[in-house]
What we know:
Blueprint: H1 3-24, E1 36-43, E2 46-52, E3 65-71, E4 77-84, E5 86-87, E6 92-98, E7 105-111, E8 123-127
Antiparallel strand pairs: 1-2, 2-6, 3-4, 3-7, 5-6, 7-8
Amino acid sequence: MSKRVVATIVVLALALTASATAFAGRGGHGKGADPTLAIATQAPGSVTFSVLIPDPGKSGPPSYQVTNNCYDGMSQLNYSATLPVVWATSTVGYAGAFAPPSGESCFTYVHVPGSETPLPGGTFSYVAM
Protein backbone atom coordinates (compact mmCIF):
# COMPACT_ATOMS: atom_id res chain seq x y z
CA MET A 1 0.00 0.00 0.00
CA SER A 2 1.28 3.48 -0.79
CA LYS A 3 1.98 6.03 1.92
CA ARG A 4 -0.89 8.18 0.63
CA VAL A 5 -3.43 5.36 0.98
CA VAL A 6 -2.20 4.53 4.48
CA ALA A 7 -2.35 8.22 5.46
CA THR A 8 -5.90 8.53 4.09
CA ILE A 9 -7.01 5.44 6.04
CA VAL A 10 -5.46 6.79 9.25
CA VAL A 11 -7.13 10.21 8.79
CA LEU A 12 -10.49 8.56 8.09
CA ALA A 13 -10.18 6.32 11.15
CA LEU A 14 -9.36 9.32 13.34
CA ALA A 15 -12.28 11.31 11.90
CA LEU A 16 -14.68 8.44 12.51
CA THR A 17 -13.43 8.03 16.08
CA ALA A 18 -13.80 11.76 16.73
CA SER A 19 -17.28 11.83 15.24
CA ALA A 20 -18.40 8.86 17.31
CA THR A 21 -17.32 10.72 20.44
CA ALA A 22 -19.09 13.89 19.29
CA PHE A 23 -22.30 12.06 18.41
CA ALA A 24 -22.32 10.16 21.69
CA GLY A 25 -22.78 13.42 23.58
CA ARG A 26 -25.58 14.76 21.37
CA GLY A 27 -28.25 12.37 22.47
CA GLY A 28 -30.27 12.71 19.28
CA HIS A 29 -29.67 10.20 16.52
CA GLY A 30 -31.63 9.52 13.41
CA LYS A 31 -33.04 11.71 10.70
CA GLY A 32 -32.23 15.38 11.07
CA ALA A 33 -29.09 14.82 13.17
CA ASP A 34 -26.45 17.48 12.78
CA PRO A 35 -23.48 16.79 10.50
CA THR A 36 -19.86 16.93 11.63
CA LEU A 37 -17.39 18.62 9.30
CA ALA A 38 -13.63 17.93 9.31
CA ILE A 39 -10.62 18.12 7.03
CA ALA A 40 -10.15 14.75 5.32
CA THR A 41 -6.98 15.67 3.41
CA GLN A 42 -4.97 18.85 3.00
CA ALA A 43 -1.94 19.73 0.92
CA PRO A 44 -0.65 23.09 -0.32
CA GLY A 45 -3.42 24.57 -2.47
CA SER A 46 -5.85 21.67 -1.92
CA VAL A 47 -8.24 20.57 0.80
CA THR A 48 -11.01 17.96 0.93
CA PHE A 49 -13.57 17.82 3.73
CA SER A 50 -15.37 14.89 5.29
CA VAL A 51 -18.99 15.15 6.38
CA LEU A 52 -20.22 12.66 8.95
CA ILE A 53 -23.79 11.95 10.01
CA PRO A 54 -24.82 9.42 12.68
CA ASP A 55 -27.82 7.90 10.90
CA PRO A 56 -29.15 8.79 7.46
CA GLY A 57 -32.61 7.42 8.20
CA LYS A 58 -34.62 5.23 5.85
CA SER A 59 -34.40 7.69 2.95
CA GLY A 60 -30.59 7.53 2.82
CA PRO A 61 -28.01 10.28 3.17
CA PRO A 62 -29.27 13.85 2.72
CA SER A 63 -28.33 16.18 -0.10
CA TYR A 64 -25.66 18.50 1.36
CA GLN A 65 -23.20 21.00 -0.05
CA VAL A 66 -20.00 22.39 1.44
CA THR A 67 -19.02 26.03 0.92
CA ASN A 68 -15.43 27.13 1.50
CA ASN A 69 -14.78 30.89 1.87
CA CYS A 70 -11.25 32.24 2.35
CA TYR A 71 -10.23 35.76 3.33
CA ASP A 72 -7.04 37.74 2.72
CA GLY A 73 -5.13 39.76 5.32
CA MET A 74 -7.60 42.66 4.92
CA SER A 75 -10.54 40.32 5.69
CA GLN A 76 -11.73 40.55 2.09
CA LEU A 77 -13.26 37.48 0.49
CA ASN A 78 -10.58 36.15 -1.84
CA TYR A 79 -11.84 32.63 -2.61
CA SER A 80 -15.26 31.01 -2.53
CA ALA A 81 -16.40 27.65 -3.84
CA THR A 82 -19.34 25.33 -3.21
CA LEU A 83 -19.20 21.61 -3.94
CA PRO A 84 -21.67 18.78 -3.31
CA VAL A 85 -21.08 16.12 -0.67
CA VAL A 86 -20.50 12.77 -2.36
CA TRP A 87 -21.43 9.95 0.01
CA ALA A 88 -18.85 7.15 0.29
CA THR A 89 -21.09 5.28 2.74
CA SER A 90 -24.50 6.05 4.21
CA THR A 91 -22.85 8.09 7.00
CA VAL A 92 -19.54 9.38 5.52
CA GLY A 93 -19.27 11.78 2.61
CA TYR A 94 -16.62 14.00 1.05
CA ALA A 95 -16.56 17.41 -0.63
CA GLY A 96 -13.53 18.58 -2.55
CA ALA A 97 -10.96 19.11 -3.62
CA PHE A 98 -11.16 22.82 -2.97
CA ALA A 99 -8.23 25.07 -4.02
CA PRO A 100 -7.88 27.76 -1.33
CA PRO A 101 -4.98 30.23 -1.52
CA SER A 102 -2.16 29.23 0.83
CA GLY A 103 -1.95 31.08 4.14
CA GLU A 104 -5.46 32.50 4.09
CA SER A 105 -8.04 32.15 6.85
CA CYS A 106 -10.97 30.07 5.71
CA PHE A 107 -14.47 29.37 7.00
CA THR A 108 -16.18 26.25 5.72
CA TYR A 109 -19.73 25.09 6.31
CA VAL A 110 -22.27 22.42 5.38
CA HIS A 111 -25.69 23.48 4.10
CA VAL A 112 -28.58 22.14 2.09
CA PRO A 113 -28.78 23.09 -1.61
CA GLY A 114 -30.66 26.35 -2.13
CA SER A 115 -29.75 27.67 1.34
CA GLU A 116 -26.59 29.37 2.56
CA THR A 117 -27.46 28.79 6.23
CA PRO A 118 -24.83 26.63 7.94
CA LEU A 119 -26.19 23.51 9.59
CA PRO A 120 -25.52 23.18 13.34
CA GLY A 121 -22.26 21.30 13.87
CA GLY A 122 -21.35 21.71 10.21
CA THR A 123 -18.87 24.59 10.43
CA PHE A 124 -15.08 24.63 10.43
CA SER A 125 -12.37 27.34 10.41
CA TYR A 126 -8.77 26.75 9.34
CA VAL A 127 -5.74 28.33 7.70
CA ALA A 128 -5.09 27.02 4.20
CA MET A 129 -1.75 25.33 3.54
